[in-house]
Hints:
alpha/beta; Rossmann fold; Type Iii Antifreeze Protein Isoform Hplc 12; 3 domains; six-stranded parallel β-sheet; 17 helices; 14 strands; 17% strand
Amino acid sequence: MALYTALRERDTPVRVGLIGAGKFGTMFLAQARRTPGLQVLAVADLDPDRARQSLTRIGWPAEQIAAKSFSAALESGATHLTADAAGLIAADGLDVVIEATGGPAAGIRHALLSCEYGRHVVMVNVEADALAGPLLARRAGEAGVVYSLAYGDQPALIAELVDWARAAGFDVVAAGKGTKYLPEYHASTPDTVWDYYGLTPEEARAGGMNPQMFNSFLDGTKSAIEMAAVANATGLTPAADGLGFPPAGVDDLPNVCRPRAEGGALARKGAVEVVSSLNRDGTPVHRDLRWGVYVSFEAASDYVARCFSEYGLVTDSSGWYAAMYKPFHLIGLELGISVASAALRGEPTGAPTDFRGDVVAVAKRDLAAGELLDGEGGYTVWGRLMPAADSLAAGGLPIGLAHGVRLTRAVAAGSMLRWSDVAADEESQVVRVRREMEAAFTPAPVVKAGE
Length: 451
């Protein structure tokens, strides 16, 4: 049954709890009241007043956010605002938890608690998913609930395209997204980020833009995290040397997203890759995919290749490689698809099935012993995608744990950080969960180009 029809025909609404009322969460809330069969039971945020302001800004009436408790919200159909995320997860009547905090430790904590209380989990927090998603998905399965990537965010949309291609009988060659990229961006910091975006600091502040968050989009970290999520959900694999960010517009995808042996940019078939909206000289790519996602696939026979031509697909020069893409993603505005799919179908909109991709911290500059790492998008490190087998063999420090920890030794610019380089708190939940995942999953060996 179609999700919309199933929502309309429900006797009781799907009751949702949102943790984190930032941009993504607010975009979801903007659509949630327009969706039949859906009730936002509660919104948890460290600053409930900020959440109230966000809801007011998007047009929620005062009476809709007037519920004084979880039980009052359940009875009245209104929404309770709170700082108590654990209380939200435990609230009677809740069906689905949306984790949208952005912090890996918080995301892992909330996902595990949701499993304990039998709530489906929609993990907007891709940082938590990249750090421990395969283990979280396993725990959810053991608890009989769904753990899902967030529809509207690029990893879930990529996973959908991959599933479409495979269900139609195509071999997937590559899948990924577009972004704005130049090699120099890896060294960008919150002090330089607005120059690359063409904004003044004053304009950015007026727009409520967080420089560290936006810098993570620019310096390659967010792309690496998202492609790790895609690899873990689809079975596609990172290249041994990580993301290449080849320039490519939508019409170039079949030529670029094919193996190097056939004139493309891939080390091998079955890869994740991010394409750049800029040529290496800084000029814009024609018909770029900066906001979108893609999958490239190949014909299995002359007949299928001829069908590509007959039905107008743009192909590579051989006629055997083609691509499908979505030019945009609407992040939180589309998130209700994940909520409905989990609650009504018991299906995720993408979920990790194994540990194939990992994101390790790399020094942006020479770092001294005793320095405090500041994590994703900061001044000290950026995140590089690696095959999980390589990361584990090298003892690589996950980018999700490279925040608020001190170096125990100096690390040269461009070098990968290792667990042995930092004083990690081995007793913290987030470190224990990550260590458990590393022990629970044995990543497959990396397949080198040509093998």
